[in-house]
């Protein structure tokens, strides 16, 4: 890696060969706004909000897609850039939902943040949004709201470059350009694996989670995020359970799952179909809510904790008394926590005096 | 796991997940990564897009083969032949890392002798992989600096599973692909906390932190800590225990597993369950095993409790309570404490963090880890702590065996090929393998309660090659009966060139078509892991269905996976 000397807003900085202006700026804590950038994806220069002025260049250049060169002198804020950005944001707003409430029924819409941040005009009139959606798509999870789309193509690029299934693509031309599937098929009938990465990368909520929308859950900004570890495979993805604490009479309900920011955890902002969507089981009506014991009639009956614990203790001890400690077998679980596995083997060894304990994934 | 401990001194991924993207050669064997570990698959895809070479060895044309430079579609159960032949080539071509072997290993000569007869030409006859491909893969693996091996249950769920692991370890040791970034040997763990369950001592041989129960010094330490005498003899492992159910095992305590869905050859196990005096289970849902339970404790799920899971890369991470459990359900750890106390113990743990502290206190590998430290790390570039982490100032270990193998010397193990226990014959002419799909998880108690996943994959199915189907008059979508010497189940036939001719493949997730009524409980002689991947089977049509059936995961057409974003299939 060779060093490059550059100047940004008058400050002399060192950068490395191949780094983009956006990357160098981020490293130095200088904010350049962007809607289409994602560190996992190749630069696209699609949204044009990151334009900067480079000494000697006639036109403004996208910071996300411009690698630094030796001696480059860059300005990230001035009147010209500001004017350009205001125009651009105002244009984005003309065929976009006009209020945050209307647009943000699910995920936050960063376009509104940016309009507010840069005081872009919002009175340029409203154009009809001509992008086609797939209202009849029967896939259970992913909804495309074409009116909120700004064509930054983060979703299609993620689908190509990260998930590598290329289920969605940019289609049509001009103002009719949209995010589409082949022959407008349902995502269920495409190569889509329902990872939901398109939802996660979308800056405006145009790609959205269907179920919370259909159910009429609270929008994301009103939910509490609880960081936890996924309970499916052994990758250990970190994820944020988005909880509505008032639901279920104050017991709380997991409304949806979002991934932590790129670069902060092992999963690097990615989740799979199970991690992102498969959590209906948490408050499923089939859940057991009371201890059960088998009665004289051979059926399981609800009982109190004290009764169930006493019966379990008596039953297990009875086996030990009749047949010795090694007549007991303890099956622990690779699905439970470290702490629970520790206690299970301690129960087996220290309380029932047998080493017949194994976790379930051993066969 | 046993294989890895024997060879290297630690049973875990030697690299971290984040290192995969920088690998230059990926040898993926017996792992349907994009379905079983989708996030690791994304890292592999990233490596391939960067220019890495990926080779996938699998009897099925799994999705990852669409991005692979080569797909070695070997006959199921012939891994030892393939891997020994690769070792043969590496030795023959003088590609071994002599210095590494000298300094860091022992017993290489035995392997050199053993693999002499495993020539690629002979291997071709057994494995159905061309000698040319075997040479090419062996050469590329040995000569690429950052070469990693990734495997899953397709390697271990055989009656010779430990042999397979030894063979892979031999390749790693003879090439010195160990103790550096992006080069090593990586078992991808199937359950969220399978690593942690082993680490915590939920095994018949080891107390927490892989300290043997038959080591007197270890036992004395724990007897002192816990204030009780401990049994000195190793206990039964799960496979032995399952076979002893109703015989020498007369009482059971089962937490968080549906043994009657997940264990092999379940009809035999059900017979045994009838002779069990007392069974306690601890579950969030009623399951098949509950039919035999005397007491059922309702337990909380992961979103309702605090604790830690340890992932495949040895990273201990926090599980945090987000919502309240329904009704009177309680966290598993709370139930265990209550039960111990109901049996006369006096356990006192105010929270799960205090349980972890006790675990860490006597297990040197985790001694530096605590809930508090993990909480602090959440703000860092990567959350969690990777063991070994021996003291509170240690920052954890990204990849193992740096500067020397943990065991002291990496142990080469000479392995001879043994055929699978039960191979196809006249009566049962097909070879059945079982596995997972992307859309469900194990016994599917969680995923089949998820409407969306059910929309994607609702019913049990079996993949069959069109030629085998044609011979039996089976059309795609027919309801068929799959039978083995142990049992039979019904499923929809999916005609697919994903499977080899002569092979069947079934997912294990569906309780109405329990694949484990079919599977063979023949165990590996060392680990007793059952042969879920190979048994003899036959199939016949029981009900015609006019409608052409799509693969219920949709991306597989009749001819196997289509081209991925990486372009056309290259082999």
What count of helical segments of chain B does DSSP give?
20
Low-confidence runs of at least 5 consecutive residues of chain B: 553-571
Strand order of the largest sheet of chain A: 2-1-5-3-4
The overall average pLDDT of chain B, rounded, is 87
Termini separation of chain A (Å)? Answer: 49 Å
Largest sheet of chain A: 5 strands, mixed
Oligomer: heterodimer
- The 3D shape of chain A can be described as elongated
Beta-strand fraction estimate of chain B: 15-25%
**Number of separate helices of chain A:** 11
Number of strands of chain A: 16
- Characterize the biggest β-sheet of chain B: 6 strands, mixed, barrel
Protein structure class of chain A = alpha+beta
- Please provide the ordered H/E string of secondary-structure elements of chain A: EEHEEEHHHEHEEHEHEEHEHEEHEHE
Task: Provide a descriptive summary of the structure in words.
The complex is a heterodimer of chains A (363) and B (571). Chain A has 363 residues and is α+β, with helices and mostly antiparallel strands. Chain A folds into 4 domains: 3-77, Ubiquitin-like (UB roll) (Roll); 126-215, Alpha-Beta Plaits (2-Layer Sandwich); 223-277, N-terminal domain of TfIIb, CATH 2.20.25; 292-362, no CATH class. Chain A has helices at 21-27, 79-94, 100-103, 110-117, 154-161, 197-201, 210-215, 247-250, 273-277, 305-323, 338-351, and strands at residues 3-8, 11-16, 51-54, 61-62, 73-75, 142-144, 169-171, 178-180, 207-209, 224-229, 238-244, 253-258, 292-294, 300-302, 328-332, 357-359. The mean pLDDT of chain A is 93. Residues 553-571 of chain B have low confidence and may be disordered. Chain B has a 6-stranded mixed barrel. Chain B is an alpha/beta fold and 571 residues long. In chain B, helix 4 (79-92) crosses helix 8 and helix 4 runs parallel beside helix 10. Classes of the chains: A alpha+beta (363), B alpha/beta (571). At the A-B interface, strand 10, strand 11, helix 9, strand 13 and helix 10 of A face helix 3, helix 11, helix 13, strand 9 and strand 10 of B.
